[in-house]
Amino acid sequence: MMIEARGLVRTFKTRGGVVQAVQGVDLEVGEGEIVGFLGPNGAGKTTTMRMLATLIAPTSGSATVAGCDLAKDPVGVRRRIGYVAQSGSTLPEAVAGDEVVDHARLYGVRKAKAVADGQRLFGELDLDGLWRRQCKTLSGGQRRRLDIVMGLIHEPKLIFLDEPTTGLDPQARANLWEHIRCLRERGATIFLTTHYLDEADALCDRILVIDHGRIVGAGTPEALKQQVSGDGVRLSLHDPAQGPAVAKIVQELDGAVAIETDTDGVNFRIPRGGAVLPSLLRQIDAQGIELDGVEVHRPTLDDVFLTMTGRSLRDGVPAEPELPKEAVA
Ligand SMILES: Nc1ncnc2c1ncn2[C@@H]1O[C@H](COP(=O)(O)OP(=O)(O)O)[C@@H](O)[C@H]1O
Ligand SMILES: [Mg+2]
User: Fold this and answer.
1) pTM for this prediction
2) How far away, in angstroms, is 224 Cα from ligand 1 center?
3) Atom of ligand 1 nearest to the CA of 48
């Protein structure tokens, strides 16, 4: 096991009272895995990661990280991990390449090797030509990729990435996913946080879903999706007033659950959605009800989150990335 945590708790005392940021998290990350910590803003992802990376002490609980006990040997943990903070960590006035080399030397990497590896990573992360640039002149996306270089330069076996792709454009995101997969192929273990469902789905071998400081689900993306019963079906109504009549027909179907009527349609879940549709549509037609559309979709990770928490993960996240876009360059 690369990470084994038991009963991690962290509370913060604020003027407004005590914040229970993390409320008893158990988690395991195996060697060579890419594990994603998925949850909405404020769920406790960063706080958990900061505890595991020795940056803040747990209020209670214990963990072994990269073979070292978090409480007894935090220096050992620190030496074996890379950590890329959500907010980044480069100084605005510093020169990008110098930051990377200084960081590597803190970990005992020789200067010549740090320069060579740093420049190679600059190439791999699309930062060519920016080695001598001041950090403050880089775009948000470039700074984010520089943060990642800093987290990788000393070749850690375990890498913590806190929202690594927030603020990156789609192409830079895809590039970073590819890079993270390459790191794993070279033997690294990656623990990352994200509030992007597609990122968790595409990149992670295993996902831990966290909400309100507690893990509410864990498994491979496929296994998590299989826990959600059936396909999602949406019937769009031509006349919204007929919602209750359609809902009544749906209620009669074997296995239909989560039936909800909204302003212009009826949603529900049912096993093998495609197979039940023909007879359902005939019944609706027989009552003279006109539909504008029908959609069937396989369960998504958002459905998983909805099933586990009663809320959609999409509702709880900002529509705009927190960092400036590439265009700021
Ligand atoms: N230093 C702090 N002082 C007070 N409250 C904090 C602090 N850090 C985090 N919190 C609170 O703890 C909760 C979890 O935050 P965080 O771990 O940053 O969530 P996430 O990374 O999932 O968005 C939030 O309610 C946040 O406001
Ligand atoms: Mg966070």
Assistant:
1) 0.82
2) 26
3) 17
